[in-house]
Fold:
Amino acid sequence: MLNCNKALPQFPQYEWLNLLNGNAVDLNHVLSNIYTISHNSKESIKLGKDVEILHGVSAPAKMVKTHGDWVIAWDATIEATVRATADDLVEI
Structure:
């Protein structure tokens, strides 16, 4: 289980679920999460006059096309993996 009391690296929520369940991580979503704040979901909840929460899975706005893109997305994935497994390593 992921300890949410500690600061987590910037990583898409849906990809956290993939990572923790041992599934493949979509590096396009990881890269998009680093470079964009857009969201394509039509589902939202209004909280007061100026606050709106959007939820759902967004489509990647940026695709991994170059070696540099891949390195950025892969480094973020490694950081999330280390953070997700660090507590397990301490217990062993």
